[in-house]
Amino acid sequence: MEFRPDGKRLASCSYDGSVLVWDTADPARPTPLARLRHRRLVNASAWNPADPEVLATASADKTVAVWRVDDRGRTTLHTVLARHTDDINAVAWLPDGERLICVSEDGRATLWSAADGTFLAEVGAHEAHCMMVSVSPQGLVATVGEDGLVAVSDPDGTAPPLTRRYDSSIEGCAWSHSGRLLAVARDDGAVDLLTAALDVVRTVAVSTSAARAVAWAEDDSSFVVGAYDGALHHFALDGTLLHRVEDRRVWPRSVAVAHGVVAAGSFWNGPHLYDLTTGRALAGPDAATHGPNALAQRGDELLVGTDSGRVVAIPVAFAEGAPARSIDLTDGPILSLTTDGDTLYAGTYSGHVLRHDGTTLVSSPALGAPVPSLTVHEGSVVAGTYNGEFLLLDPDTLAVRERIEAHDGSVKSLAAVPGGFLSAATDRTVTAGGPHERSTLWEHGNLVNAVAALGSEAAASASRDHTVKAGYLTRLPDGSLGSAQVQTLLGPDESVKCVALLGTAEHPVVLAGSYDFGLYAWHIDWDDSAATLASGRVLAEFTQGLSCMLRLDDGTVAVAGWDGRVLVVGLDADGRPVIERSLHLADLLHTPTAPQTTAQGAARAVESRAA
């Protein structure tokens, strides 16, 4: 998300592959002016400092496009930079308005001519994904990455880059408008203010969860931080907290400031605009989006947790025109679901676990970080958090019984197996066992988004390294779980988000969904990994990235994508995966006769205050 320097235009980027340019001359009435398209999700945009009609956009389709957008909303595609080797995470202009810096998942920072797309130079490199770039008015280029490296270089100078290394991932940075200070948003929830020589001027504690984005007021007297506690934090230059904005619809990974207005990303259908001085809401999105993030099964119902905070319940054996129930649990994204009998548990982006039994809604206390994974184990609800913890919660009150430091990164996925559960995390590992005693099954080359089990016999995991791994589960002499005959499956062109297994442990079929919008399938041959590699194919294509999968009781797998499509995959008589049925959530949610339960209002809301 990026304001034009005059504050009259805002470019917002979306997972649906589009960029919307908004007229924000009146920030209380933002109006869509133009829509630009990429082939994959769009990660960033940047307005040209020398020509206010020129906008650069960076996408997971591995390109940066340069557009001209005039004041009437007419658009012209000016240049597309040569396709990079991996997703482009951010883009920034040099002060001359003629050159662009692009940073990529491949760790590289590259310099390009915007006029003709000529590659000019490589200006930096990281050992892991390079996540953000910011250019000072003096032309100094700052890049940060998941390797914890902050690097500052001068493309027009001869001095070697300056670097500073952190123990935690760094995903956000921004030069002040004067160029005197560089704000760095840290994965441990702090923001450092650094000089151009990368000396620390001040460390500001922001949140118990990761700080992800930072933007400066025009006079450099304050800055705004978006953190994974779901809030926007406005600080004075001396580190004093001026105010905090909480809205569960906000996606604070993207923040921009111009002319006294703060813009933040949203899980709904448009940006949020706030007054910088007071934090008062000026404008916001007008409709929810119901992108699925989580699936669970309760009896004969398939439950779909969405970005809007709504859980949609449809028959597992759904057909066209299937009846649907919807339960409004909260007004922010639901990231995870699990069930225990008739009781539904939901993990939220705002850092709560919710319990709903059909009549009563119970909320945990604030847990300090988003909850992307849930399971039930030996009388406790296990919540995996962005802080790398397993939280053991009382299943009735949701009071926290115990906090366990489980991973060195966010716990993205949990999968129950007999006697324990599997976990996948951003520290690249897949582990198995109970809450305390864990063993590592295997590691990926990058963070692991999801893990799935086939009973107690086999498991598979999906990673940002563009691969899926699958292996047998074994019981080691000490009683812990191990793995054997682990295979690596290739196919997706981008990060793999979700995974599931079909069939039997001897002849499993692995399904995986990717940010490249594809649903992939492999037949596992434990004795011939080359045959497994050759079996990979695209089974279906979505219009956005795939988000979640769930193995159903009847041996089929439910698959959902952020475009709202839900389908069920089974095996035909020859053991080949086939799509058995499909629906779109929008068709159900827009049906006037669909019954709806608002759990916040119709049910008795109870919040657990226990520590």
Strand and helix map with partners:
Elements: E1 2-3, E2 9-13, E3 18-23, E4 31-37, E5 42-47, E6 54-59, E7 64-69, E8 75-80, E9 88-93, E10 99-104, E11 108-113, E12 119-125, E13 130-135, E14 141-145, E15 149-153, E16 162-165, E17 170-175, E18 181-186, E19 190-195, E20 200-205, E21 211-216, E22 222-227, E23 231-236, E24 241-246, E25 250-258, E26 261-266, E27 272-275, E28 281-283, E29 292-298, E30 301-306, E31 310-315, E32 325-328, E33 334-340, E34 343-348, E35 353-356, E36 360-363, E37 373-377, E38 380-384, E39 389-393, E40 400-405, E41 411-417, E42 420-425, E43 429-433, E44 438-443, E45 448-454, E46 458-463, E47 467-475, E48 481-490, E49 496-503, E50 508-514, E51 518-523, H1 529-535, E52 537-541, E53 546-551, E54 557-561, E55 565-571, E56 577-584, H2 585-589, E57 596-598, H3 599-602, E58 604-607
Parallel strand pairs: 32-57, 36-58
Antiparallel strand pairs: 1-2, 2-3, 3-4, 5-6, 6-7, 7-8, 9-10, 10-11, 11-12, 13-14, 14-15, 15-16, 17-18, 18-19, 19-20, 21-22, 22-23, 23-24, 25-26, 26-27, 27-28, 29-30, 30-31, 31-32, 33-34, 34-35, 35-36, 37-38, 38-39, 39-40, 41-42, 42-43, 43-44, 45-46, 46-47, 47-48, 49-50, 50-51, 51-52, 53-54, ...
Describe this structure in words.
The chain is mainly β. Among the domains are: 145-280, YVTN repeat-like/Quinoprotein amine dehydrogenase (Methylamine Dehydrogenase, Chain H, 7 Propeller); 366-585, Methylamine Dehydrogenase, Chain H (7 Propeller). It is built from three helices and 58 strands. The strands form 14 sheets. A five-stranded mixed β-sheet has the order 29-30-31-32-57. Strands 33-34-35-36-58 form a five-stranded mixed β-sheet. It has a four-stranded antiparallel β-sheet with strand order 1-2-3-4, with no helix packed on it. A hairpin with a 4-residue loop joins strand 49 (496-503) and strand 50. Mean pLDDT is 91; it is low at 591-611. Keywords: Repeat, WD repeat. It comes from Streptomyces macrolidinus. Pfam families: WD40.
